[in-house]
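Project standup — Tuesday

K.O.: blocked on the structure for the chain from last sprint. Re-posting the sequence here as requested.
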Amino acid sequence: MYATFKRHLLQFKNPSGTSRGVLTTKETFFLEIEENGKKGIGECGLFRGLSFDDVPEYEDKLAWLCTNINLNSNFLKEELKNFPSIWFGYEQAMLNLIQGENLYFPSDFTTGKNSMKINGLIWMGSAEFMQEQIEEKLAQGFDCIKLKIGVDWDSEKNILKHLREKFPKEQLELRVDANGGFSFEEAKIVLEELHELGIHSIEQPIKAGQIDEMAELCTITPTPIALDEELIGVVDFQKKKELLEQIKPQFIILKPSLVGGISGSEEWISLAENLGIGWWITSALESNIGLTAIAQYTFTKDPKMPQGLGTGGLFTNNLETSLVLKGDQLWMQ
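H.V.: unblocked you, prediction finished:
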């Protein structure tokens, strides 16, 4: 086998706000593996400022993988355990090498016979900007919307309140993602206020690493809590188990590029289900290559609730895709 990689800088159509700042570009890397005239491509979806593997030697490790691509996959996995996005790119490329075309996990989804329900994502911004996005999602037919919060809670709460006045929770599921934007004391109040508004769940109300505080919040909260950033960097199976047993969240959010790809996601799902913890899968601003692989994998898990998958429409210089959105259903064609 022979492997190469290249860097690609995705450009946002519109600046996209989170509690960590406003995003205008997203760096990513494409890994291509060739064998016997066949090629497989995968995406190493590095997320600057968030990924566990956002380190100066990232490209050196990618080059190392290309040089050592013929080594045993178990050895490579061990060597790349601290580079989850590179390992995921390798998983994708190897699967694509076997399946061909734009396939990773063939299924009724990849043949266009079935689809998946996704949530509509609302980016942070002014109240007017957020309201515009909400109206657009509602017009498209979404009945599950996720809002980024944690910058101006009073304004964000008013938006949620107005939404709930128009649409009861039986008609519109509302999820929120704080990206660690609240302090522990603030979070206790916010969780109560979210409950009064009939909010489905909140992702990462406080910053990751505050294990005791998060465990307490998950114990007392009237609004289900989903761990997101809390999972990043936890690579040992036993450590994963201990984290979930200690915090006991209501949900976990799996971003394959950030938690060790398919194999890492499988470990988290197995542990969560054994502990009665819900989960869903979310993309993390990958290009259409990584997004396609994540969508195909997600379908194989037979999801029962809306998933947090993007649609590839955020960027001006994305790659071509077979993914299409019809209402709130993600299809391949």
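K.O.: great, moving the ticket to review. The chain has a mean pLDDT of 95. The first helix runs from residue 58 to 67.
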